[in-house]
Amino acid sequence: MSETRLHPLHYHRPLGMTVAGAGISLLMVTPLLYIAWYALQAEGADWVRLWDTTIPQLLVNTVSLALATAAMTFGLGVSLAWLVTRYDFPGKRMWSWLLAMPLGIPPYIMAYAYTEMFLPGGWAQRAWQGLFGAEAALPMLYGHFPAVVWVLGLATFPYVYLLVRASLTNYNVAFEEVARIQGMPRWRRFFHVTLPLQRPAIMAGLFLVVLYVFSDFGAVSMMRFPTFTRAIYLELVGRSDRVSASVLALVLIAMSALLFWQERRARSRSRFYQTGGHYRRMEPVRCSWRGALAIWSYLLLVFGSAFGVVIALLIYRSVEGIELEGLPTALWEYTFNSLFASGMAATLSVFMIVPVAYLATRYRDRLYQVYLRASYAGYVLPGPIIGVGVLFISIHLLAPLYGTVSVVILAYLIRFLPQGLQAQETAFHQIKPNLEEAARTCGASFHRALLRVVFPLAKTGIATGWVLIFVSSMKELPATLLLRPLGFDTLAVRIWIETSEEFYSLAAPAALVLIAVTAPLFGLLIFRDARPAAS
Amino acid sequence: MKRIAMPARVWAAAGAAWLGLLGGVALPWLAAADELVIYSGRGERFTRPIVEAFEAATGIATQTLVGDSNQLLTRIEEEGERTQADVFLTNYAGLLDIARRRGLLQPYRSPAGERVPPEFHGPDDTWIAASARARVIVYNTDRVDPARLSSMLDLADPEWEGQLGITVSSNASFIGGLAAMIKQEGTERVRGFLEGIKRNAGNSVYPTHTPLVSAVARGEVAIGLINQYYYYRALAKNPALPLAIVYPDQETHGATVTVSGLAILRHAHNVPSARRFVDFVLSDAGQKLFAEVNYEFPVSPAVPAHPLLPQPGTVKFSPVSQALQVEAIDEAVALIKSVGLQ
Predict the structure, then answer these.
(1) Domain residue spans in chain B?
(2) Residues in chain A closer than 8 A to B80 (CB atoms)
């Protein structure tokens, strides 16, 4: 990676950025320190009790859920990315965008929709009885492992799809042609040439999926499937038992950190470079009408399951709710609150990321690598832990902020900044430092070079980061539940409160608004491809 | 060196972000000056009518934060003297007693509380019950013969394996019911009971009582352990549901009672208004709301229970006082943990 660093002649630590980076990375690890401190207070007996009663089952549940979901998203994500990059069919551009939209549906809403359809009298049950007679019944989905995998898989496959699609779009078809000239049959070409070359993108996507499954709280709670994050939440806010919660959290954090470390190592090893100057994009294969029909049916099936039925159910329920209680007037207030807190979190993060990402990609300096690693802490911290950690920080260290929206924003920052950091880090890596050096040689200051050369070139990476943080914040639940100030409810909180009291038809309009705000933003990620994986 | 101006757009974005943040800081301070602030662990649909009636009766402006009782207790504890809350209204008095032991409450002897029987008062006048509820067994009338259910301990019988539904064990009423059982039956019998219901319930562990009652109604499980009012609420929504309840242990000590309650926080800013709120809840008007809106038993003998509920003398209730019951909370939680309930 040394080729992206600045020339040693320019090496001196920029003071402002170094100080800012220190502050930011320190802020990011405080919840981790908080939880470690509590875990240290656990006595041997606490560990033994948790190992004897809860941890093994939680481990089995969480790991098997993550693996099964990863397998499902791998199949869906790669096949969809392959179809929309390799084939030419009517509506291809529209589909590229539509397939990313399920990411805008919070998994707990997906979980609600599916469990509801499989309740007696639900759509799925009625359809089944229509086909096989009144006595036939499908199982209900509570605590049902394949159903939980299905829901989480549908909610997260776009991570894999987006990254693999970007990678396939930018990859050099010459490798494949060589294989073809050597007489390799088509399917072998796919498995032995094309697929291995997408490995970095696939791994990065699966990594996000697994982390998501580790940290999911809403969907597993709604489907009553015990995992670590749910258990941590119950210990923490249900029993006010911070010691047990932090012990469980440490186990989960260790698992996520291991995964994070592996992923970074694998990525730095497996960069694929193009060696010759012959770069050609792949020419998509024109489809016959039969082929196009087959592709359309597959895409419709996936999109229908992940987005269509959910939206249909929400609209149906909303109409019912509005007939019952009229249009919920406070909805606009919740929408504003959600937009405000998420927009603030995304905007602030994007600024805060710059020093950390820039220093780590431009300088060969241990300190800056420490900043970078520390700022990724939010990736491995479970949401409820961030909630309590921020509660602690804001009361004891940032007293004037307490009781305000800033506390919620701070939690979003810590939890989701890593997503933006990853996008910016990649973007900065792809800008050759000699461009900045040229600007500096011509007399531009450090800041001017940054503003006029680096930022414009990293624009899409920065925008991608913003979108990712914004959307995740809109969906955030456990920390918001704990930290929201008086009279400040977000859409996500309302959905949670109404569904937990089984007022589904009152939760549906809020869910629709939430999806309407977030889903279109993924167009931004698709139409200006932000993360060409291997350049 | 020449100073270089940052592009206007960058400044504008940074400026807007910070202004917004400052606005976020300032707004809540402007809003919450002399209002009464209530942290309510009772459902929003139940808190609202009481608060609205209180505002109408007294003209005192109130702000409420509705959430899970345990979660609010965590919050009050972390907030310490910085809390904005004046009153803590919860669905289980045990949580109030935990708050008392941690020094988070201040005493108040409400004149309206004089007629409330002594078993509903917390130690040192720190908290008082607002309503009483019985722990009952709800069953699906299509699937269950009620003769098989006479005691709470029957729920642990192997014959119910795979047919019992319970709430998550962190549910306050669940813990309260266990604490009362510990005082009544002794620790070892309760441990056996917990092991039995853990096996019988399996994965049928519901986040709250409402979905549990629905699950019994549609036959997902045959029986469930709930507070009585969830049953009446479900029937009010749909009278055709195949549901009925049993008030258990009528031959012996009577059905277990837990109470919802309220207290004034030690760091309350608005003590006079907080006291008026306590008075209001214990007044006839307040008690009537508890009885009518939510099918709970009033703690004031002057107010009758809802006509659908068993009238005085028809059902036998456990004599364990609330102050005694809440002493066993820690033991109940320790038992739950050692058995490893979800």
Answers:
(1) 30-132+259-309, 133-256+331-339
(2) 395
Superfamily of domain B133-256+331-339: Periplasmic binding protein-like II (3.40.190.10)
Amino acid at B77: E
Angle at A528 between CA A526 and CA A533, to 5 degrees: 80
Distance from the Cα of B203 to chain A's closest Cα (Å) equals: 6
The more confident residue out of A88 and A265 is A88
CA–CA dist A423, A460 (Å, integer): 9
Q: Which amino acid is at B182?
A: I
- Residues 6 or more apart from A74 whose CB is under 8 A from it? A160, A202, A206
- Whether residue A88 contacts residue A286, with contact meaning beta carbons closer than 8 Å, is answered with yes
Q: B30-132+259-309: which CATH architecture?
A: 3-Layer(aba) Sandwich (3.40)
C-alpha A70/C-alpha A269 separation (Å) is 22
Domain of A514, in residue numbers: 2-270+288-527
Residue A151 lies inside a defined structural domain of this protein: yes
| pLDDT per position as a tens digit, B297-322 | 999 988 998 888 888 788 889 888 88
Note whether A451 contacts B14, CB cutoff 8 Å.
no
Interface contact flag, A53 B80, Cβ < 8 Å: no
Is the Cβ pair A142, B14 closer than 8 Å?
no
Task: Dump pLDDT digits (tens) for A360-414.
Answer: 888 878 888 889 888 888 888 888 888 888 888 888 887 777 778 889 999 999 9
pTM of the model: 0.82
- In chain A, residues with a C-beta closer than 8 Å to the C-beta of B6 are 447, 451
**Beta bridge partner(s), residue B297:** B132
For the four alpha carbons of A530, A468, A265 and A24, in that order, the dihedral sign comes to positive
Q: Are strands B257-265 and B87-90 parallel, antiparallel or unpaired?
A: antiparallel
Number of domains within chain A = 1
- Cα B181 to chain centroid, rounded: 18
Q: Are B275 and B112 contacting, i.e. CB atoms less than 8 angstroms apart?
A: no
Average pLDDT over residues B51-70: 90
- A534 within some domain: no
The CATH number assigned to the domain holding A379 equals 1.10.3720.10
In a domain, A535, yes or no: no
